[in-house]
């Protein structure tokens, strides 16, 4: 059975575009500053809360900007330098699930804002390699345990990903103007892409399908949206899973 979420609408027709998160578990989002990355993430978190009532979510934002500040005290929100701890915590949820991969798990989303800046901030080469190895494991092995990595980048550089890792992002979304470099990283095989997009305007591609021109949905009531995100985050971390996996 697949789970689908309407996350974007088609340019022109406004028909909903759905993300089949069973088939395409991981998402890579790229946009220039002010392109609307965080705005889109907020919309996505609302959709997740409304449609997946049993899901869990961890948010990491190295930039520590205003976007998630109001949720900074949540145990599943990691800002600034706490993102490294956050990543390890989120990774341990994956490892716990992998010890019993045939069990049914509720959806888990690791929302990784400023992904590329985070990787670049890791000074020691061996630490960076260890980090990228874990990202690679998540990308390759977490589908079966209903674990979804949502990576958000301002720039996309191959060096921020484990070897072959980018190909495991089966859902790719570029919001706003698409730089030639980002085009090459995200949609290398598609020659006639409209790169001239503005805020909230999107090129989206699911594995094996053509690039679609789309738009983000408008958040009509930001207070209500933030309330929905508060609800989602108040579910905390799936710690009961951890307890089960750790018990002898
Ligand atoms: N589709 C949109 N419709 C209306 N306002 C938007 C849209 N996308 C972004 N914004 C607004 O533009 C500003 C920058 O968006 P933001 O999501 O913070 O960009 P980014 O995270 O890519 O830097 C914010 O004030 C946001 O509310
Ligand atoms: Mg942002």
Q: Tags for this entry?
A:
single chain, 248 residues, alpha/beta, binds adenosine-5'-diphosphate
Q: What molecules are bound to this protein? A: adenosine-5'-diphosphate, magnesium ion
CATH topology: Rossmann fold
Could you give the order of the helices and strands? Answer: EEEHEEHEHHEEHEEHH
CATH superfamily: P-loop containing nucleotide triphosphate hydrolases
Helical percent range? 25-40%
Short description:
The protein is α/β, with parallel strands linked by helices and 248 residues long.
Overview of this structure, please?
There is one protein chain. The protein is of the alpha/beta class. The protein has one domain (4-241): Rossmann fold (3-Layer(aba) Sandwich). Helix content is 33%, strand content 22%. The protein has a ten-stranded mixed β-sheet with strand order 2-1-10-9-8-3-7-6-4-5. A hairpin with a 5-residue loop joins strand 9 (201-206) and strand 10 (212-216). The radius of gyration is 17 Å and the shape is globular. The two termini are 33 Å apart. The structure holds adenosine-5'-diphosphate (ADP) and magnesium ion. Residues 37-38, 67 line the site of magnesium ion.
């Amino acid at each position: 059975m697949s789970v689908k979420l309407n996350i974007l609408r088609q340019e022109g027709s406004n028909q909903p575009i759905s993300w089949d998160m069973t088939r395409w578990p991981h998402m890579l989002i790229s946009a220039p500053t002010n392109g609307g990355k965080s705005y889109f993430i907020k919309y996505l978190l609302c959709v997740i809360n409304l449609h997946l009532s049993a899901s869990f979510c961890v948010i990491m934002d190295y930039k520590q900007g205003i976007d998630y500040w109001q949720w900074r005290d949540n145990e599943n929100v990691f800002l600034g330098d706490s993102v490294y701890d956050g990543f390890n915590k989120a990774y341990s949820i994956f490892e716990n699930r992998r010890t019993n991969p045939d069990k049914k798990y509720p959806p888990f989303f690791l929302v990784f804002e400023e992904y590329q800046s985070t990787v670049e901030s890791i000074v020691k080469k061996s630490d960076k390699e260890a980090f990228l190895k874990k990202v690679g494991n998540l990308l390759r092995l977490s589908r079966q345990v209903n674990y979804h990595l949502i990576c958000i980048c301002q720039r996309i550089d191959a060096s921020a990903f484990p070897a072959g890792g980018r190909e495991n992002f089966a859902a790719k979304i570029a919001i706003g103007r698409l730089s030639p470099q980002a085009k090459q990283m995200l949609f290398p095989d598609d020659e006639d892409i409209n790169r001239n997009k503005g805020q909230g305007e999107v090129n989206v591609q699911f594995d094996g399908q053509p690039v679609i021109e789309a738009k983000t949905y408008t958040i009509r009531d930001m207070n209500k949206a933030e309330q929905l995100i508060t609800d989602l985050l108040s579910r905390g971390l799936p710690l009961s899973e951890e307890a089960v996996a750790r018990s002898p």
